[in-house]
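User: quick one
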Amino acid sequence: MGLKRNVSLAAGLGYKGEGPYLTYILHRIGGSALFIFFTIYILALMGVQSANGILANWVFQLVFLPFMLFHAINGLRITILDLSPKLIEHYRAAINIEWAAYILVVAFALFIVLRNAFGG
Amino acid sequence: MATRTLPLSKRGFNFEVFMWAFTRFTVIAMYGLMLAGILGALTLSAQTGANFGDILYWAFFPNMAENPLGQVWMVILAKLMVIAFVLAACGHGVHGVLEILDDYFTSHAVRRLSRNFIITYAVLASLIAMYVIWTR
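Assistant: Done. Structure below.
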């Protein structure tokens, strides 16, 4: 476990890792979103009414759902590749399949959120 | 790209390896519980006539919703599954948050502090969730 980093923020942002790096970054953002969601969920269980209000708010759902769903779908890809090392050769294809599945799922989820928000 | 496999005996078994394995196993448990939960809720919905969404909402927020399930065994099963899911999610999240924090804090002391803090947080959150889900 290295304790020193010699990479500046600018260099980090300029890193051309392409698709795999993008999934890595989005997975982290999704994990952080889930951590926030989990904290609000525990507060709601403790009876904090505003926490329940936040979870029910459509703007919150609209912002958090895409990241949380990405974390779940990307995690499934990572798990499948971890359990089947032979598939690692096709990891770029796996990422493409993941994006296709993600777009379908997130589009459906956001449609439901917006339909509920605007009383469709 | 060549595949890489390394037996556990050569990896060693320190805290990081243990947490990595724990993270993988808990996420597999979560996917299994999600699948079983959705199938279970659909089955209970068909048997009791209760709305699928109402069952899931009550299962995760028992302090804010009326119980849509009549029979005691259904209630116990649903509570056990939700508790198992929350525990798996909490266990999985601990290592994820630790990895992110380790990337931003480089001093040994701060890393140890953040590690202790997040593990304490996970234990407390799990206890609260278990208590509320089981008793309401």
